[in-house]
Amino acid sequence: MTIYSIIALAVALAMDAFAVSIATGAYLGNLHTRQIFRLSWHFGLFQAVMPVAGWFSGTTISDYIAACAHWVAFGLLVLIGSNMIRGAFSDGVEEINKNDPTKGLSLVMLSVATSIDAFAAGLSLSVLNVSIIYPAAIIGITASGFTLIGLYLGSRFAGIVFLKQYTELLGGIILYVIGVQILYQHGVSGI
Description:
Elements: H1 3-28, H2 33-57, H3 62-89, H4 104-127, H5 133-157, H6 161-185
C-alpha cells in the first residue's frame, strides 16, 4: 500500500470526525483548550486504535462485525443527536449547564461512532496482508488534525447570531444526517 493510498484512506476515515467536530464546535461556541485537546486526542486515538483492533480481528469475525457495525455507529449518533435536540427545546438552560460532549460518556460514544469505519478498514488491511502500525498512525494523526480544524470552523459558525440560537438543534440534526449516511453507505434498504 502506497503512502498516497494510506493518506487517502486516512482522509476518508476522518470525514465523520470532521463533521462531528464542526457540530461540536458550533454547539459549544467558546472552546477551551481542554475541550479542544480532549476531542482531538480521543478522535485521533480511537481512529488509530480501531484499525489495529480490526486488523487483529482478521477475517475470522469480519462477517459478524460488518453486519452490525453501521447500526452501532448509527445508534450512538442518534442517541447523542437526540440529547442535543432535546437540549435545544428545553426551557431555561443556562450556558454553564450546557452538556459538554467533550466529556464522559458522550465523548466515548462520539469517539466510537466516528471510528467504526476505521475498524472495517483494519479488517480490509488484514485481508490484504498490509502491516497496520504505519497506516494506523497516519489515520490517527489525520483524524486528530481534521478534528482540530472542524472545532475551529464550528466555533466560528457559533458566532453567527442565527446559528448561536440553534446550535444544539443544528448539531443534533448533523449527527442524525451522519448516522443516516452511514446506513446508506452500507446499503441498508429504504434509506
